[in-house]
Write a structure and sequence with these properties.
14 helices; mainly alpha
Length: 302
């Protein structure tokens, strides 16, 4: 219990300055914005395609306009979170502080990904293309080489296993240090996190078919969310209770912001993964379990 209280105090002290982590002992300047075209161009193109397609859909829609407006707000929130995590000074701060790095990952996987999934952007983006190209893209997406692997990877159990494997493998010291030392591998790490999170939240929040299968799908999704809360919580707890830093790239920094040692910086990062990460998955699981109980109550009342 004392250890948890100490970690909570460290977390409270470190979070307000995580974005200033790059201005540590080795660098006099605060972290700057990341204008890497490999990041900014995909973000710009996705926003442009969604805006054009959404406008065309909205003009053709009558009764579905409120839902389209809701999708636009969800996409804007998810896109802004994604851009903020990858382009703002938080991204560069993550090179100096594991806590800042962990905040970036949590924003990508726990906030941006589910918001984007709920916005269902691909159907809107499709309308940004001319009719002939739209039909061609529709045929390609419906073809077996595309639809079969996607259906398999976005299944609840498979998507849960993929995300768990990505998290644990990329947090292995050897691979994580490689990502810290190379911009290319760092981008690959983030791409793995984003893709696995999109598959996971598609499985958890995606549309369902018939009502009978929807009940079974929601029950399975709730169970997978519950399992994920334990899987991510276990990894975060291991970091939080470790007395030595796992990653040489951060250990070489000697002191993190606010005088935290690399081990303490890692403990705060682990606590962030353990508590907020676990709570998000747990809350989503409870919300799904509630949707399973409400229809049953209604049926009993009749």
């Amino acid at each position: 219990m004392r250890r948890l209280i100490r970690l909570s105090l460290l977390c409270a002290a470190a979070l307000p300055g995580a974005a200033l982590a790059h201005g540590g002992h080795d660098h006099g300047e605060p972290p700057g914005w990341t204008w890497d075209p490999w990041i900014t161009m995909p973000l710009f193109l996705s926003a442009l395609l969604f805006a054009i397609g959404w406008r065309r859909l909205y003009a053709r829609s009558a009764g579905g306009q409120p839902r389209l407006r809701r999708r636009a707000w969800l996409f804007a929130a998810g896109w802004a979170t994604l851009a903020g995590a990858l382009v703002s000074p938080l991204h560069e701060a993550g090179e100096r502080s594991f806590t800042a790095h962990m905040i970036e990952h949590e924003l990508l996987m726990l906030l941006a990904a589910p918001l984007i999934v709920l916005a269902e952007p691909l159907s809107a983006m499709l309308w940004a293309f001319p009719p002939a190209a739209r039909r061609a893209l529709g045929r390609i997406s419906a073809s077996r080489p595309i639809s079969v692997p996607f259906t398999w990877a976005s299944g609840a159990v498979v998507a849960t296993l993929i995300q768990a494997a990505v998290l644990w493998i990329w947090h292995m010291p050897t691979l994580f240090d490689v990502a810290l030392a190379s911009e290319g591998w760092h981008a690959t790490q983030h791409l793995c996190f984003i893709v696995s999170a999109l598959l996971f939240w598609t499985a958890m929040l995606g549309r369902r078919g018939a009502a009978a299968s929807a009940l079974g799908d929601r029950a399975l999704a709730a169970f997978c969310l519950l399992v994920t809360s334990f899987v991510t919580g276990a990894l975060g707890a291991l970091m939080a209770f470790s007395d030595s830093p796992w990653y040489a790239g951060y250990a070489r920094l000697a002191l993190a912001p606010f005088g935290l040692s690399p081990a303490e910086d890692q403990q705060v990062a682990g606590l962030i993964m353990w508590v907020p990460g676990g709570l998000v998955h747990l809350a989503a699981a409870l919300a799904l379990f509630r949707t399973l109980l409400v229809p049953q109550r209604s049926a009993d009342a009749v």
